[in-house]
Amino acid sequence: MQNEFIQDSPKKPLFDWVAKTENFPSKERWRRWKELMEVSLPYRCELLLKSHHSRDYFGEFAVSANPDTGDSFARACFSGNSFRRSINHLSDGYANYTLIYLLSGRGAIQRGKSFTPMNPGGLYLVDLAQTITHDLVHESRSMLCRIPRYKLEKFRLGPEDNRPLEIDGSSGPGLLLRNYLLLFPQAKQQSTFASPEILFNPIAELIIACIQESRGNLQAEAETPSRLNAIFHQACRLIQKYCCDADLSAHQLATSLDISPSYLHRAMRYHNTSYINVLRRARVEAASAQLLAAGRDASILQVAFNCGFNGTSQFSRAFREELGVSASEFLKRSFEEKGKVLEVEK
């Protein structure tokens, strides 16, 4: 019956709009792009080009929107720039959410005193009813989804919900969301159903699942001193055991401990250190043991590779930071001490 209804109903078209800087004179690209976007976006904002951004600006923005609900999907590619929605902009009453899937490029989102780094492959849910600034430093490609507030509002009422939500796209509903966004353009072209709502609704539903999962993770990861201590010592033991694996990462370690990477970093900070520092010390300790075992015939390059470093430069820097001397000086002193001991024993 549902299929018959879909076949008999006329398909509602999406509203499509494309903007490109290639049609502008090169010297006017940034000015005209800024004017066009600030006027065309459904909310008030300010675009800025700062000193660390490229002067040779380019931009492409292609959006498909459902005019009945306010949902939209856009693909964007542009040079680095800053986006700002400040107090004076909020008087427009716009209150929808934007989901950012950053395919390439780097930057950060600022909400008050909170900073959220933006990295390639990251998924970020931003509330445009709040003041927000995000800065993309280099050329970037992204997918942007507008989600009407009523779809998410009752799921975003916690004390932590006044700042952007970083969604884990490596597993669970976050992975499904990421893949759905990648397939969205193809699905849009090939869709035969009556309403674009059927195309957009899964995005909101997957975001809700991600919100609920993040809440569950936070509840499971209570920051009690005893738990932070336990996680820290478990992590140190695993790092000590697998430090020579060049591919070891904080994400892998967190997965093996059944915690989130952010909780791992909090446990490290609780002990006034970091994952990088603990890993570096473990690798240097392993390297110093290998150097002593190999004796005067030790190959510093081979020891560096054996202990997870990517070369002698990284190895030498880490060795000096941890022990205060170079690897060659460490070997020299060790054998001098050994020689003195042998002389005493004679």
Provide the descriptors you would attach to this structure in a database record.
346 residues; alpha+beta; Jelly Rolls; Arc Repressor Mutant, subunit A; seven-stranded antiparallel sheet; five-stranded antiparallel sheet; disordered N terminus; disordered C terminus
Structural description of this entry:
With 346 residues, the protein is an alpha+beta fold. The protein is built from twelve helices and twelve strands. The protein has two domains: 2-220, Jelly Rolls (Sandwich), CATH 2.60.120.10; 225-345, Arc Repressor Mutant, subunit A (Orthogonal Bundle), CATH 1.10.10.60. The chain has helices at residues 2-8, 29-40, 149-152, 172-190, 197-220, 225-242, 250-256, 261-270, 275-294, 300-306, 312-323, 327-345, and strands at residues 15-20, 46-48, 59-65, 72-78, 81-85, 97-104, 107-111, 114-118, 123-127, 132-136, 140-147, 165-167. Helix 4 (172-190) runs antiparallel to helix 5 and helix 6 crosses helix 8. The longest helix has 24 residues, at 197-220. The chain starts with a helix and ends with a helix.
Characterize the main sheet.
Answer: 7 strands, antiparallel
Output the CATH topology of the largest domain: Jelly Rolls
**Biggest β-sheet: strands ordered side by side in the sheet:** 1-3-4-11-6-9-12
- Category by helix and strand content: alpha+beta
Q: Count the helices. How many?
A: 12
* CATH architecture group name of the largest domain: Sandwich
Helix content: 40-55%
Radius of gyration: 27 Å
Total number of domains: 2
Oligomer: single chain
Question: How much strand?
Answer: 15-25%
Task: Characterize the overall form.
Answer: elongated
Order of helices and strands: HEHEEEEEEEEEEHEHHHHHHHHH
The total strand number stands at 12
Overall pLDDT level:
85
Question: What is the H level of CATH, i.e. the homologous superfamily of the largest domain?
Answer: Jelly Rolls
Q: Which CATH first-tier class of the largest domain would you pick? A: Mainly Beta
User: Which spans of ≥5 residues are poorly predicted at pLDDT below 50?
Assistant: 1-10, 340-346
The CA-CA distance between the termini, in Å, is 98 Å
